[in-house]
Specification:
alpha+beta; 5-stranded antiparallel beta sheet; 5 helices; 5 strands; 14% strand; rod-shaped
Length: 259
C-alpha cells in the first residue's frame, strides 16, 4: 500500500471516529432532553394527581355535607310537621275555649237558679231531718245564702260551697259522734250530751246521768227513756269520745220514720 493510501485510510478512520463521537454526543443530548421531558411530565403528572386528590377530597366533603344537609332537612321537616300538628291542636283548643267562654253567660244563667233551688232543698231537708248539730247546719245554710249575695265570690266558688254542704250532710248518715249542747224538754232548756249513730239513733243524756232521751222524728220531739238505757248511752258517749274502746252497746232506734 502506498503512503497516500495509508494517509487516506487514517484520515477516513479519524473522520469516522469524529463522526461517531459527534453521533454519540448527539444521542447523549437527545437522551438528556428526553429525561428532562420525562421529569417535567412526571412533575406535571404529580401536580395533576395532587389536584385530582384535592378535588376528590373536596368532593367527598361536599358529599358528606350534602348528606348531612339532607338528613337535617328531613329531621327539620318531621319536626315542622310535629310543630304544625301541635299548632293545629292548640288552635282547635282555642276555638273550643272561645266557644266555652261565649257560653259562660248562658251557663251562669242556668247554674245560679239551680244553686238557689239546691240551697232551698237543703234547708227543707235539715228541718225535716234528725236534728243532729242542727244549729251548725242552719248556720251553714245561712252562710250559703250570704255567699250567693256576695259579688266578690265567683259562681264556681259558690257552686263548690253548695256541693260541699251537700257532702257534709251526706256524712251525717255515717258518723258515730258525741257532742254537748242544749236540749229543750217540757219548755225547759237543759245542757246535755248528745250521741248519734248516723241517722239511725239520736239520743241525749243529762250531765248528771239522771235522764236520757231519744229523738222521735215522727213527732219531732224528745221522748224520755227508762233507766235501762242510762249505762248503754253513757258507754256510747264515752266510746264516741274515744274514752272507751268500741264495743257492742244497746241504743234505742227511733229515727227518720223508723221505730
Amino acid at each position: 500500500m502506498s503512503k497516500l493510501s495509508k494517509k487516506s485510510l487514517i484520515a477516513s478512520t479519524i473522520i469516522g471516529s469524529l463522526a461517531l463521537t459527534a453521533s454519540n454526543f448527539a444521542a447523549a443530548d437527545a437522551l438528556t432532553d428526553l429525561q428532562k421531558a420525562e421529569a417535567k411530565t412526571f412533575k406535571a403528572s404529580q401536580k395533576s394527581q395532587s389536584k385530582i386528590d384535592n378535588i376528590y377530597e373536596q368532593t367527598l366533603n361536599l358529599l358528606a355535607e350534602y348528606r348531612n344537609t339532607v338528613d337535617e332537612a328531613e329531621i327539620l321537616g318531621e319536626y315542622n310537621d310535629h310543630v304544625q300538628r301541635m299548632v293545629d291542636d292548640q288552635n282547635a283548643n282555642i276555638k273550643s275555649l272561645e266557644k266555652q267562654i261565649a257560653g259562660i253567660d248562658k251557663t251562669k244563667q242556668g247554674v245560679v237558679p239551680l244553686m238557689y233551688k239546691m240551697i232551698d232543698t237543703l234547708e227543707k231537708f235539715v228541718e225535716l231531718d234528725v236534728p243532729v248539730n242542727v244549729e251548725a247546719r242552719r248556720e251553714r245554710i245561712q252562710g250559703l245564702r250570704d255567699v250567693m249575695g256576695n259579688s266578690n265570690v265567683s259562681v264556681s266558688e259558690q257552686f263548690r260551697l253548695v256541693l260541699e254542704a251537700y257532702e257534709i250532710e251526706a256524712n251525717y248518715g255515717t258518723i258515730f259522734a258525741a257532742y254537748q249542747g242544749e236540749i229543750e224538754v217540757d219548755g225547759q232548756k237543759l245542757t246535755a250530751d248528745f250521741l248519734h249513730m248516723g241517722r239511725v239513733s239520736f239520743v241525749a243524756q243529762s250531765l248528771d246521768y239522771k235522764h236520757s232521751w231519744v229523738w222521735n222524728n215522727q213527732t219531732r220531739a224528745w221522748e224520755e227513756l227508762g233507766d235501762e238505757y242510762t249505762k248503754p248511752i253513757t258507754d256510747g258517749i264515752r266510746m264516741a269520745r274515744k274514752q272507751l274502746p268500741l264495743d257492742l252497746t244497746k241504743l234505742p232506734v227511733f229515727a227518720a220514720g223508723a221505730q
